[in-house]
């Protein structure tokens, strides 16, 4: 009986392996974009790899040649859904990088802690950190004050990003974090002594619109 079971298993594997057909090599290396558009295999391997610059920005350029945005991020919440194309994500992550470097005075090898749910702003900030070479410490909004304090002290983060739920918790331990200099709030509300990230993004978008008008 055991021999019969083994034979059936072997026969099933044999049949399934003969029914598997790998994709042609062209499908592995060539995109389905129109003639003249960029192909991902045309991109040379950079000496210094940066995901935001070498991948996200590259796909943003490819998106232009394909005649429309393609979802890089698909956000669904109680308000509905929003599809973020590669070009849009690249643009907003560059604006976030400008906020981190100019407003927060962060640079390569600095540390930043993020206590946010997985919203679009979270991805902009993470990509901005990658662009600038900033090490980010992700954290869930469920972190307690003690857990936040431990992470801030161990990382010696100079900046923290949180929403209206995490802001008062951070403030309760900030006196014990001498390296923490800047606090960014991602919320539709305002909070005392916190920089409004969304307003800073809108300000940069207004400046961009003014530049091209």
Automatic annotation (TrEMBL):
<protein>
    <recommendedName>
        <fullName>medium-chain acyl-CoA ligase</fullName>
        <ecNumber>6.2.1.2</ecNumber>
    </recommendedName>
</protein>
<dbReference type="InterPro" id="IPR000873">
    <property type="entry name" value="AMP-dep_synth/lig_dom"/>
</dbReference>
<dbReference type="GO" id="GO:0005759">
    <property type="term" value="C:mitochondrial matrix"/>
</dbReference>
<dbReference type="InterPro" id="IPR042099">
    <property type="entry name" value="ANL_N_sf"/>
</dbReference>
<dbReference type="GO" id="GO:0006633">
    <property type="term" value="P:fatty acid biosynthetic process"/>
</dbReference>
<keyword id="KW-0436">Ligase</keyword>
<keyword id="KW-0443">Lipid metabolism</keyword>
<keyword id="KW-0809">Transit peptide</keyword>
<dbReference type="GO" id="GO:0004321">
    <property type="term" value="F:fatty-acyl-CoA synthase activity"/>
</dbReference>
<comment type="similarity">
    <text>Belongs to the ATP-dependent AMP-binding enzyme family.</text>
</comment>
<dbReference type="GO" id="GO:0006637">
    <property type="term" value="P:acyl-CoA metabolic process"/>
</dbReference>
<keyword id="KW-0547">Nucleotide-binding</keyword>
<feature type="domain" description="AMP-dependent synthetase/ligase">
    <location>
        <begin position="71"/>
        <end position="197"/>
    </location>
</feature>
<dbReference type="GO" id="GO:0031956">
    <property type="term" value="F:medium-chain fatty acid-CoA ligase activity"/>
</dbReference>
<dbReference type="GO" id="GO:0005524">
    <property type="term" value="F:ATP binding"/>
</dbReference>
<dbReference type="Pfam" id="PF00501">
    <property type="entry name" value="AMP-binding"/>
</dbReference>
<keyword id="KW-0276">Fatty acid metabolism</keyword>
<dbReference type="InterPro" id="IPR051087">
    <property type="entry name" value="Mitochondrial_ACSM"/>
</dbReference>
<keyword id="KW-0067">ATP-binding</keyword>
């Amino acid at each position: 009986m055991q021999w019969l079971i083994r034979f059936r298993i072997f026969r099933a594997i044999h049949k399934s392996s003969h029914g598997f057909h790998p994709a042609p090599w062209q499908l592995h290396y060539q995109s389905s974009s129109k003639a003249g558009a960029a192909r991902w295999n045309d991109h040379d391997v950079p000496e210094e790899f940066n995901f935001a610059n070498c991948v996200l920005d590259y796909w943003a350029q490819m998106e232009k040649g394909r005649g429309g945005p393609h979802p890089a991020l698909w956000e669904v919440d109680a308000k509905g859904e929003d599809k973020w194309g590669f070009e849009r994500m690249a643009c907003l992550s560059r604006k976030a990088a400008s906020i981190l470097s100019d407003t927060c005075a962060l640079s390569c090898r600095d540390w930043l802690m993020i206590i946010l749910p997985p919203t679009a702003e979270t991805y902009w900030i993470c990509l901005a950190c990658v662009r600038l070479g900033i090490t980010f410490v992700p954290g869930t909004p469920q972190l307690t004050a003690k857990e936040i304090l431990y992470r801030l002290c161990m990382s010696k983060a100079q900046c923290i990003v949180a929403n209206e739920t995490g802001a008062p918790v951070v403030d309760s331990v900030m006196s014990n974090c001498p390296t923490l200099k800047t606090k960014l709030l991602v919320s539709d509300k305002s909070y005392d002594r916190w920089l409004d990230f969304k307003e800073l993004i809108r300000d940069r978008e207004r400046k961009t619109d003014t530049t091209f008008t």
